[in-house]
Amino acid sequence: xxxxxxxxxxxxxxxxxxxxxxxxxxxxxxxxxxxxxxxxxxxxxxxxxxxxxxxxxxxxxxxxxxxxxxxxxxxxxxxxxxxxxxxxxxxxxxxxx
Length: 97
Prior knowledge:
This protein has 4 helices and 4 strands, in the order ββααβαβα. By secondary structure, it is of the alpha/beta class.
């Protein structure tokens, strides 16, 4: 299960995620992400992964897309930090090629 909370903070659209970003929950996050498209064009976006306990490959792919479209990814814990760093490094390489 994944809990998705979307809220506006001072000049920022914040996606707070809690639980597992895996299986059908990846699609749920994508639907939330797409439904906020108009707001995302106006405000910077942050995705907080601090309460995420597991991310599958499909979830990693979605996070990569979200980051590519301008979302800032924040994580805590060794595994999630490693996943976020890997996404950022892969996009730096793609941008540099």
